[in-house]
Amino acid sequence: MSEGSLEHQDLRQRLIQVARREATITYGELCPSAPQSLWRPLDQINWVEHGEGRPLLTAVVVSKDRRRPGKGFFKMAKKMGRFKGNDREAFWREELQAVWDYWNDGPDQGD
Question: Collapsing DSSP states into helix, strand and coil, what is residue 59?
Answer without folding.
Answer: helix
